[in-house]
Amino acid sequence: MFGLIKTTQAVLPTMRKQKSGIVVNISSAAGRFGYPAGSAYVSTKFAVEGLSESMLYELEPFGIKVVVVEPGVIRTNIFNSVVLAKSQDPNSPYSQIMQKMTTGFEDMLKNTSSSADLVAKVVLSAVTNENSNLRYLAGKDVVMLLEARKNMSDVEFHNLIKKQFNLQNIQARVISTPRR
After folding, report:
1. Which end of the chain is more exposed for a tag (fewer CB within 10 A), N or C?
2. How far is CA 74 from CA 62, 105, 111, 114, in A?
3. Looking only at Cα atoms, what is the longest distance across the chain?
4. Using one digit for the tens of pLDDT, what is the confidence trace for 146-177?
5. What's the CA gap between 129 and 179, in Å, rounded?
6. pTM of the model
């Protein structure tokens, strides 16, 4: 998030001077809804969404557009560097959730993910569109999930996410610590 802010601040003086430009921020579907075991990632994507929407108002008078691309699950090597269940202590109260989320994401990568080329095509479409929108979705999975989010109550969507990752029957494990 801080890198995005610093990079944007570096190019804005030139864009303001030329009275044109397009700021393209890559967010994620995770910028629109949370999911288990993704708190840190999801919160950065929510921040990208809020920053981008606010900048839209601030930069519009200078002829500068702001675009946010929101990919779903994309076949990249990001999951090779994600620290989820790989480093989870099996005694952690969250180990069951972490294991289910890892399995769920692996299944999504195999079955419903999109290629990185799709994201590139969406970015190209967004920057070449005369009447650009603020947000562009990239991937069938994100289109489906955001449509569901729009048409469901919070409780219904919460249950959908739990079902998606097979989390319906997870029971909290309380780890007691001895009192001193």
Report:
1. C
2. 34, 11, 11, 5
3. 67
4. 999 999 999 999 999 888 888 877 665 545 55
5. 63
6. 0.83
**69: which strand partners?**
26, 136
- Alpha carbon distance 81, 39 (integer Å): 16
- C-alpha angle with apex 142: 23 to 147, nearest 5 degrees? 110
Question: Can you tell me the distance from the alpha carbon of 102 to that of 140, in angstroms, rounded to the nearest whole number?
Answer: 20
2-164 maps to CATH 3.40.1010.10: no
Q: How many CB atoms lie within 10 A of CB 61?
A: 9
Three-state SS string over 57-115 comes to: HHHHHHCEEEEEEEECCECCCHHHHCCCHHHCCCCCCCHHHHHHHHHHHHHHHHHCCEC
Give 160's contacts (C-beta < 8 A, 6+ positions apart): 148, 152
User: Could you tell me the residue ranges of all domains in the chain?
Assistant: 2-164
Token look-up 């190019």 returns 11
SS3 breakdown of the chain: % helix, strand, coil, rounded to 5?
60, 10, 30
Chain segment 35-93, per-residue pLDDT in tens:
888 888 999 999 999 999 999 999 999 999 999 999 998 888 766 665 554 456 777 78
Active site residues: 41
